[in-house]
């Protein structure tokens, strides 16, 4: 069942009410920073209301399925929150929901499972705020007319759930009663006017619905509004957006920036949400510009907040503040793909741009933090003026935000995304003992109400969320350790962890540009396979860097970079498959697929179709596959089955292209 924006407040009140009876169970994906931001927002809200809860980081559907089996069947009212997981699958079936358990899903992955969004499903509530998906966007499930009475009863029960026990005013209560009465009258009139249907009519209606469902899934996978933004909207409706000195607003900003960094949102949609956040930041600035405090002698002095968010026009040079300008430009996918710096001519073009801007190589290669404010301002103005005439760098800037923590720390939202992502990607290097300290000190999840999954007091609960034990790559324990470590980076509360994340991110960025450059400059590295392009990192990658691309996020970023570059240099656009090593099983390859066109705002234009293509290809050739993450574009394929799997995938894509051509002509 869908929960629209107007019901966010009531939804939170129901979750909170159930949480007072039995601790809330939160299952959060370890695959992206957006999920981490949404969790931190909900954590602050629950703590402000003294609601007990337990947190379980999960790395994939199989782990989530196992966690669902651990939920006790004690018939107690229990709220389950799923963050960036579960939305695309039937939650009732996957988690085997027990009696009186209700799941609340904040998931940006699309398409949503039709079972989850069905009005008849009173066990799963999908929290969403996406104007592009109207009520008629989701095809209807098959229903029988004799179930109408039960549906009416269930719907009335659901309506009663979404009413506040404490603060509902009389006008709101009367409005809901009138809506309920109107619905009952409408159903009654429909039953009176309904004529018995022939078997042929029923069969035709079922066939039409089946065709609608097929078309729904053919649109492919894409992304809706970030989970972090939805969680912040809920906090705003509950008047909790100012918790932790506006940290929740910062987390919402980082969640949106994470979608931009990984091309999960179009430039147009990013600007739309960014301008909405700007108004929130402006309100925060005006409300917290300064405060006055009295000294010992009674003198009133102005003191400024130690934490604040500012709006800034950022250059598309990743982590520029933490290395030098030259390296930041040389390792920016935006600059590299347009200047083609994997060629010597591209590097000369970059040098020429800097010279035109009046910057010597010595100045460009000095640490950015050593650059004077005046020089930085002039550099920005010159780059914006001359970049368009050098390789077509017309969109060199974008609007974003920076977070100031005292006088020492100033971080852009994009830098935080890169640092936190680098930690999430780097399972094996997360110190498990540090993770235990993190959960004791930083997270401190309602220590006096610390509960296990059954609601009993348990001082060792944190170990149950994957906080200790095995440091092997790809295990749930190590991914959870990385999750807890990355949470420190979001609020910039631990500069050592943030700095480590940035250093790791810069290392990965160098490897990404280096490997991408090798693939683009060496003829034959990127092969054409029917209607697809294919690049194998295990065959053509540098052995020194290959292990850095074991995580789906890292390999996906490489695939996106290569596809961006191919759009600049190739006349014919094709989908791209990139193959790398698997951190889950050495006998498998990690496979990611990206479409030929960049992310757009149009749902009708289609998303990433590889989720469906993977399933068909595996079925046709009986390939052994695993889905180690919640991303539809990622799959693990047995090494022995990969050649046949790719050949089948190419045939399936050729069918897709032919079908699209037919639809365009007719």
Automatic annotation (TrEMBL):
GO terms for biological process: DNA replication initiation; double-strand break repair via break-induced replication; mitotic DNA replication preinitiation complex assembly. InterPro entries: CDC45. Pfam families: CDC45 (PF02724). Its main location: nucleus. It comes from the Eukaryota. Keywords: Cell cycle, DNA replication, Nucleus. One of its GO terms (molecular function) is DNA replication origin binding. It is found in: Nucleus. Residues 136-172, 432-445 have a biased composition (Acidic residues). GO terms for cellular component: DNA replication preinitiation complex. Residues 125-135, 173-190 have a biased composition (Basic and acidic residues). Residues 125-206, 432-478 are annotated as: Disordered. Belongs to the CDC45 family. This is Cell division control protein 45. It comes from Bathycoccus prasinos.
């Amino acid at each position: 069942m869908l929960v629209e924006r107007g019901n966010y407040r009531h939804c939170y009140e129901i979750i909170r009410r159930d949480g007072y009876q039995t601790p809330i169970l939160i299952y959060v994906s370890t695959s992206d920073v957006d999920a981490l931001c949404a969790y931190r927002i909900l954590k602050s809200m629950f703590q402000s209301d003294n609601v007990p809860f337990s947190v379980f980081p999960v790395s994939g559907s199989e782990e989530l399925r196992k966690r669902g089996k651990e939920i006790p069947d004690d018939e107690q009212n229990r709220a389950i929150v799923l963050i960036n997981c579960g939305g695309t699958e039937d939650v009732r079936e996957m988690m085997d929901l027990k009696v009186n358990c209700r799941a609340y899903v904040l998931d940006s992955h699309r398409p949503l499972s039709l079972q989850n969004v069905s009005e008849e499903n009173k066990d799963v509530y999908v929290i969403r705020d996406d104007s592009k998906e109207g009520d008629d966007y989701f095809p209807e499930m098959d229903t029988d007319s004799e179930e109408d009475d039960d549906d009416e009863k269930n719907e009335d029960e659901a309506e009663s759930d979404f009413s506040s026990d404490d603060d509902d005013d009389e006008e709101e209560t009367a409005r809901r009663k009138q809506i309920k009465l109107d619905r009952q009258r409408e159903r009654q009139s429909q039953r009176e006017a309904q004529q018995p249907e022939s078997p042929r009519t029923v069969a035709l209606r079922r066939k039409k619905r089946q065709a609608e469902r097929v078309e729904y899934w053919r649109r492919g996978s894409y992304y809706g509004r970030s989970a972090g933004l939805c969680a912040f909207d809920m906090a705003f409706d509950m008047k909790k957006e100012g918790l932790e000195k506006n940290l929740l607003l910062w987390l919402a900003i980082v969640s949106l920036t994470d979608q931009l960094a990984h091309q999960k949102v179009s430039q147009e949609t990013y600007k739309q949400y960014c301008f909405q956040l700007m108004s929130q930041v402006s309100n925060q600035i005006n409300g917290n510009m300064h405060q006055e405090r009295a000294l010992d002698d009674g003198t009133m002095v102005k003191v400024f907040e130690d934490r604040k968010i500012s709006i800034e026009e950022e250059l598309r040079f990743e982590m520029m503040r933490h290395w030098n300008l030259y390296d930041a430009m040389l390792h920016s996918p935006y600059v590299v793909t347009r200047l083609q710096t994997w060629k010597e001519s591209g590097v000369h073009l970059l040098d020429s741009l800097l010279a035109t801007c009046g910057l010597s190589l010595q100045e460009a290669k000095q640490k950015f933090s050593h650059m004077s404010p005046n020089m930085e301002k002039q550099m920005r103005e010159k780059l914006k003026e001359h970049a368009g005439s050098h390789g077509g760098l017309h969109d060199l800037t974008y609007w974003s935000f920076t977070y100031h923590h005292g006088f020492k720390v100033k971080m852009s939202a994009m830098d935080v995304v890169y640092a936190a992502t680098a930690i999430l990607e780097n399972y094996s290097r997360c110190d498990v003992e540090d993770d235990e300290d993190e959960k004791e000190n930083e997270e401190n999840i309602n220590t006096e109400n610390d509960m296990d999954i059954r609601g009993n007091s348990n001082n060792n609960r944190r170990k149950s969320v994957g906080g200790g034990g095995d440091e092997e790559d790809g295990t749930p324990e190590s991914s959870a350790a990385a999750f807890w470590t990355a949470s420190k980076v979001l609020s910039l509360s631990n500069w050592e962890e943030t700095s480590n994340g940035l250093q790791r991110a810069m290392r990965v960025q160098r490897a990404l540009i280096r490997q991408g450059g090798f693939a683009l400059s060496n003829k034959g590295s990127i092969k054409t396979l029917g209607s697809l392009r294919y690049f194998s990192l295990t065959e053509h990658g540098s052995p020194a860097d290959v292990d850095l691309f074991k995580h789906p996020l890292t390999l996906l970023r490489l695939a996106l970079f290569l596809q961006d570059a191919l759009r600049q240099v190739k006349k014919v656009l094709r989908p791209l498959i990139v193959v790398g090593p698997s951190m889950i099983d050495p006998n498998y390859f990690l496979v990611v697929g990206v479409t030929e066109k960049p992310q757009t705002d149009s749902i009708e234009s289609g998303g990433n179709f590889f989720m469906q293509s993977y399933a068909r290809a595996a079925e046709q050739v009986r390939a052994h596959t695993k889905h180690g993450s919640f991303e539809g574009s990622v799959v693990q394929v047995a090494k022995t089955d990969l050649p046949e799997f790719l050949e089948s995938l190419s045939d399936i894509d050729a069918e897709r292209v032919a079908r699209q051509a037919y639809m365009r002509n007719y």
